[in-house]
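hey can u check if this looks right to u? its 354 residues, i copy pasted from the old doc so theres a chance i mangled smth
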Amino acid sequence: MKKKVLVYALSGIGDALMFTPALQLMRKHLPDTQIDALVMFGGVKDIYERTGLFNSVIHFDFLKEGALKSLLFLSKLIGRYNYTINVYPSNRKEYNIISFLSLAKNRGAISYIRKDKRNFGFLNSVRIEEKDNFHNVEENILLVRKMFNIKDYEENDLLFPLTENDENFAAGFLKRNALDEDELIIGFHAGCATLKNHIKRRWEPEKFIGLAKKLIKELNAKIILFGGPEEKELNESIITGVNNSSIFIVDSNNLAESAALIKKCAVMVTNDSSLMHVSAAMKRKVVAIIGPTNSNYIYPWHTKHKIVSLNLDCSPCFFYSPKPLSCSRTDIQYKCIKEIDVERVFSAVKEFIG
């Protein structure tokens, strides 16, 4: 029977990018196999279509469409595939149920250390054990190797191809703002996801302001602020706080244009966010400010990077889960991110640029 594979990449952009090394391995060893993807976010659809490695990328917003329309949509997938893969991490009962309802004989997913049974992990038929010291990329590669009996072990780069139009946008942005590629250009991403209290993973905007002032004054740096439309107000507050002509906000139309401009930056300073992984895909030097997350899972893959973290005894406490992020400390809530000072991040950036 011909293999027909459906990849469920229902979480965010960062998680989807961290599956692309495994995807490349799949396509190398399964050149004639039908490999489709089901995604929930438009940004993921764009990245996956750009890879050229999927036969089809299906976009359906389960959150927006509601239960009835979602069930009707899923009914059309029944029996169409004999393999499904839940991209790691996806420790949610909804994702496991969706995969089960496909009636695929081979349903691949990670066996999670935490809350696996509660989230119906047993509905999957091909599994590997999760390890806290493994990167998300490594988990995905190991799962794919087991599912398709692939003997090779290859750790490819994250894959996010850009077009000439994307590159032209980046060049045009520099020209419009009188920026020269020979100058020290440093990117900031002060935002991150906000669902389920993840906003608490953000380094405070006042500290990004302090860092920008220090970089401009001491290193004559130019700062570019990245972020989506929902982060416009945050970035404008940083611009106001810095009050200097050497800081700019990206006015891109999409993620790919932002990615092309990230390629122009010498260093990217970012929270634990999707743009951290986009920066890794662009092979930039990354200074990642990490609070409660296990950095073993998500450090910038295959690019030079520095993790700025306090490494508290209670960290990491955030392991992928449907449960909202919370802090059990009684002294300073979210101390792991709040007490990272400007000097610590500045030193990491300075080390990168010599």
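The radius of gyration is 21 Å.
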